[in-house]
C-alpha cells in the first residue's frame, strides 16, 4: 500500500543534514510498489527524485516534486561454482551491511569498499570506488525499471559504461531508470587487493601477518575513520569533487612549479591529480562560508559545520573551484549530485 506524504522534511534523508522540503514523499518496498506508483497522478504530474541513503546529494533548495525513497530489501545467492558466486542485492540494502554479509560468507571482492555510506542501488550510479577497487571490477549485472514505461531492463557491465565516478545512469540515462537490484561476481578464494599503500601500513600497525578479507575490511575502516567525517556527527557527502585528469603537458608544467604535486599516471598517458592536495595548497582547509566549511583533515570534503544551508555549501564549492583554477589552471568537477 503506497503512502504518499506531503511537505516532508528531507533533513533525515541526506547525510549533509541539510534542511529542505519535498512536496511529496513516498517509500517503495517492492518493484510492484513502484509499478503502482507509476500510474498515480502525483507521479505523472511531478518531477521525481529517487534516493537511497542520501549520501551523495546536496539540496540547494526545496524539492518541488516527488521524492521516492528506495527501500527494496533482500540478498540472494543466484549462482555458485567451486571458485565463484554471484550475489544479488536489492537496491535498498545498506551498502556497508551488504559488504559485511559478503565478508561473513567468505565472498571476496568488496572488502576494500567497506564503510562507504548509502545503498546498493546507488553504487552503480557513480561506480563507487575506494582503496584500489571500483564496483565495475566485480559487477555482474543490474536490474532496473524504466521510469516512464515501467518495463524491466537488465544492464550488463558494458551497457553501464562505467568510468571514474561515472556511468550511463549519470549521463545519457539520467532519471530514466530505477535500479532495483545489483549482482556481483565474487571469488571464493581470498585474493586480496592491497595495492593501495595505506592498507599495508594499517595492516602492519594492526600486527596482521597473513591478512584475511576481514582484516582488509578492518584496515579500510580504520583508515576511513581517521580521515573522513562521520555523517552522523558532521554532515557531509564524502569527496565533494572528483580528482581531475590532466594531460601529460599540463602535468609536466605543474610539476615544474609545484614539485610536491600529488599525481598518479594513467594508462592513457594522462595524469590524475589529488584534488585534496590542490585545495589544501590554496590554503583552504578549514575555510568557512555561513556554516559550511572545508574539512580540516581532508580538503576534498565539504562539511555542514554549523547548521548551514545547501546554498552555503554550493557557494563554498564555487569559491574552491575558483581558487584552484586561479592557482593551478585546473578545473575541478563536482562529484556530489546537486539538487
Ligand atoms: P543517494 O545519495 O541517495 O543518491 C545518489 C544518486 O543516485 C542520486 O542522483 C539519486 O537520484 C541516484 N539513485 C540512488 N538510488 C537509486 C536507484 N535505486 N535507482 C536510480 N537512481 C538512484 N563514494 C565513493 O565512490 N567512494 C567513497 O569512498 C565514498 N566515501 C564516502 C564517504 C562519506 C563519509 C560519504 C558521506 C559519502 C561517500 N561516498 C563515497 C559517496 C556515497 O556514499 C556514494 O556515492 C553512495 O553510493 C551513495 O549512495 P546513496 O544510496 O546514499 O545515494
Ligand atoms: N591530500 C592532501 N590534502 C588533503 C587531502 C588529500 O594533500 O586535504 C593528498 C593525500 O595526502 C594523498 C592524496 O591527496 O596523497 C589522496 O588522498 P586520499 O588517499 O585521502 O584520497 P582522495 O583522492 O582524497 C579518493 C576518493 C575517495 C576514496 C579515497 C580512497 C575521489 C574523488 N575520492 O579520495 O572517495 O575513499 O580516494 O580510495 O576519487 C568519495 O568519492 O566520496 C570518496 C570519499
Key traits:
Uridine Diphospho-n-acetylenolpyruvylglucosamine Reductase, domain 2; Uridine Diphospho-n-acetylenolpyruvylglucosamine Reductase, domain 1; binds uridine-diphosphate-2(N-acetylglucosaminyl) butyric acid; globular; 339 residues; binds flavin-adenine dinucleotide; alpha+beta; Uridine Diphospho-n-acetylenolpyruvylglucosamine Reductase, domain 3; five-stranded antiparallel sheet; four-stranded mixed sheet; 3 domains
The unique ligands bound to this protein are: flavin-adenine dinucleotide, uridine-diphosphate-2(N-acetylglucosaminyl) butyric acid
Tell me about the largest β-sheet.
5 strands, antiparallel
Number of helices: 9
Biggest sheet strand line-up: 6-7-12-10-11
Oligomer: single chain
Quantity of strands, as a count: 20
CATH topology of the largest domain: Uridine Diphospho-n-acetylenolpyruvylglucosamine Reductase, domain 3
Q: What's the overall geometry?
A: globular
Low-confidence stretches: none
- First-to-last CA distance: 28 Å
Number of domains: 3
Residue fraction in strands: 25-35%
Mean pLDDT: 97
- The first-level CATH class of the largest domain is given as Alpha Beta
What is the C-alpha radius of gyration, as a whole number of Å? 21 Å
Structural class: alpha+beta
Amino acid at each position: 500500500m503506497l503512502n504518499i506524504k506531503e511537505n516532508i522534511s528531507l533533513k533525515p534523508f541526506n547525510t549533509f543534514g541539510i534542511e529542505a522540503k519535498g512536496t511529496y514523499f513516498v517509500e517503495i518496498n517492492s518493484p510492484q510498489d513502484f509499478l503502482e506508483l507509476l500510474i498515480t497522478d502525483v507521479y505523472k504530474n511531478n518531477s521525481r527524485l529517487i534516493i537511497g541513503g542520501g549520501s551523495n546529494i546536496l539540496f540547494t533548495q526545496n524539492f518541488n516534486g516527488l521524492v521516492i525513497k528506495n527501500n527494496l530489501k533482500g540478498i540472494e545467492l543466484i549462482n555458485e561454482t567451486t571458485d565463484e558466486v554471484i550475489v544479488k542485492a536489492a537496491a535498498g540494502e545498506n551498502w556497508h551491511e551488504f559488504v559485511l554479509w559478503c565478508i561473513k560468507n567468505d565472498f571476496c571482492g568488496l572488502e576494500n569498499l567497506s564503510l562507504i555510506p548509502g545503498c546498493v542501488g546507488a553504487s552503480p550510479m557513480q561506480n563507487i570506488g575506494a582503496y584500489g577497487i571500483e564496483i565495475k571490477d566485480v559487477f555482474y549485472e543490474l536490474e532496473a525499471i524504466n521510469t516512464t514505461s515501467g518495463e524491466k531492463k537488465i544492464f550488463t557491465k558494458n551497457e553501464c559504461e562505467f568510468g571514474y565516478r561515472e556511468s550511463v545512469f549519470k549521463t545519457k540515462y539520467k532519471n530514466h531508470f530505477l535500479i532495483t537490484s545489483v549482482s556481483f561476481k565474487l571469488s571464493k578464494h581470498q585474493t586480496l587487493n592491497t595495492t593501495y599503500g595505506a592498507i599495508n601500513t594499517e595492516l602492519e600497525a594492526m600486527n596482521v601477518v597473513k591478512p584475511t578479507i576481514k582484516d582488509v575490511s578492518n584496515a579500510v575502516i580504520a583508515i576511513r575513520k581517521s580521515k573522513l567525517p562521520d555523517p552522523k556527527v558532521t554532515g557531509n557527502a564524502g569527496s565533494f569533487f572528483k580528482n581531475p585528469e590532466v594531460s601529460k603537458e599540463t602535468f609536466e608544467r605543474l610539476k615544474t612549479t609545484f614539485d610536491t604535486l600529488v599525481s598518479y599516471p594513467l594508462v592513457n598517458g594522462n595524469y590524475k591529480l589529488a584534488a585534496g592536495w590542490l585545495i589544501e595548497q590554496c590554503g583552504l582547509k578549514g575555510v568557512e562560508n555561513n556554516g559550511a566549511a572545508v574539512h580540516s583533515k581532508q580538503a576534498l570534503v565539504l562539511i555542514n559545520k554549523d547548521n548551514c544551508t545547501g546554498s552555503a555549501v554550493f557557494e563554498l564549492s564555487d569559491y574552491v573551484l575558483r581558487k584552484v583554477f586561479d592557482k593551478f589552471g585546473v578545473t575541478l568537477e563536482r562529484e556530489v549530485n546537486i539538487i
